[in-house]
Design goal:
The chain is an alpha+beta fold. The longest helix has 21 residues, at 286-306.
């Protein structure tokens, strides 16, 4: 007998403690965390755990990712850091003229879809750094898809919102609205099509997805629905080991994936805050919050002007992170007034996130996403493959570094982060989901844990802010009213957002190394859950 209808609201303040152990997995969904833990218990390492959790998330959290997602990772293997960029490139037919005929770059449908890269991320990570057979890593996800799982309250709400927007997109209703509706909280959802696709991916180590039967179905659906993606576009895809870019922040060094990701904005903001002298006032004091917001605005102005596929950028990451340049940008922070800055001249003259770590010292920061919830809304019939809408991040501005072009990666929102101690030992794997919130969230997490020493769960729980353009800034309900008033007195146009913070402020997961053990924080804004042993 089913449980009577429940009220899924949480009217009372609640607190959770950080999770500690020698092996830990922290994700945005409990069942995915358990999938990762199963790999650790089977003798796998942190990378195996992350891949299993990532595969499971495509099933149990389809509102944030899918088999058609992109992915990025930073891994500490015990001796060195590795950075992986598995974001996809544009179809060969995508030119500015192609989209001018369409009236612009759409947000939904096939003409928003770049080649999906998440599957290639799983394969690349497993081959280079994993221990267990690739097919074994897919088993929890296959089980959840075939035998079903109870849909959680937060995901049920996001699912309904996504269907209201995307239900008419090709293939969406067949996959995500069985019986003509979305599942309610607590209802068991199954997808045999998703299970079969995962089995093919597992059996062929991704080959079927990019150069086999799955690729053929993806390309055929594209051609039948006005898309440009072809078999050749899929076959040309590869994930790239790109290393990291970094920024000193006090006694830590923060690492991000190089552009096309937006992680460089977090590094710039932290570099400016160091130059500004942040840390002299409490973490939630108006002086700290104001300076952090202003530094983020300056970093975003440069991000929007310069960030793109690294091969197309007009300036280098090193130029944007040059200490003299960041000092000059920091000098633009008015301690008394909100600003509305433009970009600088560095040359002279917007997911699901997880972190895992194991007793052998391996740590991984991993992120994958369909971008705007379910992404493009396109689902390839009979496969369970929901496709991202990363192409919408391109623009049509002539000469801009991020102007759409064939075979090009767009400026990207999803970013994993990693902190090292200045002595070269690993410190923290962390990330924050949520479009343009991500680099802002990285800045706030690094500030709280690495400068102010907050424990990971406290840093995750703290109310967050996000800049919204111009002098606009939104803060979560629960933000100190006195700080809100002080921000407004300095000219900030502040909006206090009510409701579940996942819709605007994302969800964070942190794993901090503490000697031979780890301390994990997970975000209740989503269904964040950390497990350890």
């Amino acid at each position: 007998m089913n449980t009577p209808s429940l009220d899924w609201s949480l009217p009372y303040a609640s607190h959770r403690s950080a999770v500690m152990g020698r092996n830990v997995v922290s994700t945005s969904q409990p069942l995915a965390a358990q999938a990762g833990l199963r790999m650790l218990l089977a003798g796998g390492n942190a990378v195996d755990a992350a891949i299993a959790a990532a595969m499971a998330l495509t099933v149990v959290e389809p509102t944030g990712c899918g088999l058609g997602s992109d992915g990025f990772a930073i891994v500490w293997d015990g001796k060195e850091l590795h950075g992986l960029n598995a974001s996809g490139r544009s179809p060969a037919a995508w030119t500015p003229e192609y989209f001018e005929k369409l009236g612009g770059i759409p947000e939904t449908g096939w003409n928003a879809v770049t080649v999906p890269g998440a599957v290639s991320a799983w394969v690349a990570l497993s081959r280079r750094l994993g221990k267990l057979p690739f097919a074994q890593l897919a088993q929890p996800a296959i089980d959840y898809a075939r035998n079903g799982f109870p849909v959680s309250p937060t995901i049920a709400k996001l699912w309904a919102l996504g269907a209201a927007k995307l239900g008419a997109q090709p293939g969406f209703a067949e996959c995500f609205m069985p019986g003509g509706r979305t599942p309610v909280a607590g209802e068991i959802f199954r997808s045999e099509a998703h299970a079969r696709t995962l089995e093919l991916i597992a059996e062929t180590e991704g080959e079927a997805f990019y150069r086999g039967v799955i690729a053929e179905r993806i390309a055929a659906h594209s051609q039948a629905n006005g898309g440009a993606m072809t078999l050749a576009d899929l076959a040309a895809h590869q994930a790239d080991w790109v290393g990291t870019i970094s920024q000193r922040f006090g006694d830590s060094v923060i690492h991000e994936i190089p552009p096309n990701g937006q992680g460089i904005a977090a590094l710039m903001a932290l570099g400016m805050l160091d130059a500004h002298g942040v840390g002299q006032h409490p973490v939630d004091d108006i002086e700290t919050v104001h300076a952090s917001i202003e530094a983020m605005k300056l970093a975003f102005a440069d991000l929007h002007q310069y960030n793109a596929d690294i091969d197309a950028m007009h300036v280098t990451p090193a130029e944007l992170l040059h200490p003299d340049y960041l000092k000059g940008r920091a000098a633009l922070i008015d301690p008394e007034r909100a600003g509305d800055p433009g970009h600088g001249a560095p040359r002279p003259g917007g997911t699901v996130y997880l972190a895992a770590a194991d007793s052998q010292g391996m740590m991984i920061s991993f992120i994958q996403s369909n971008y705007m919830g379910f992404g493009s809304g396109v689902v390839v019939p009979g496969t369970g493959i929901s496709l991202q809408n990363r192409g919408h991040n391109f623009n049509l501005v002539p000469g801009h570094a991020n102007q759409v072009a064939p075979g090009k990666r767009p400026s990207h929102t999803i970013i994993p982060a990693f902190a090292m101690h200045a002595d070269g030992t690993p410190q923290m794997a962390f990330g924050v989901m949520g479009g343009p919130m991500q680099s802002q969230g990285h800045t706030q997490m690094a500030l709280r844990v690495l400068r102010y020493g907050q424990n990971p769960q406290a840093a995750v729980d703290a109310p967050r802010w996000r800049i919204t353009g111009g002098k606009g800034v939104s803060v979560e309900l629960g933000f100190d009213p006195a700080v809100v008033a002080a921000l407004r007195a300095r000219g900030h146009e502040v909006t206090v957002e009510e409701g579940n913070g996942v819709f605007a402020f994302g969800g964070a997961q942190l794993v901090l190394r503490n000697g031979n053990t780890y301390i994990a924080g997970s975000d209740p804004r989503k269904d964040g859950h950390a497990v350890a042993y």
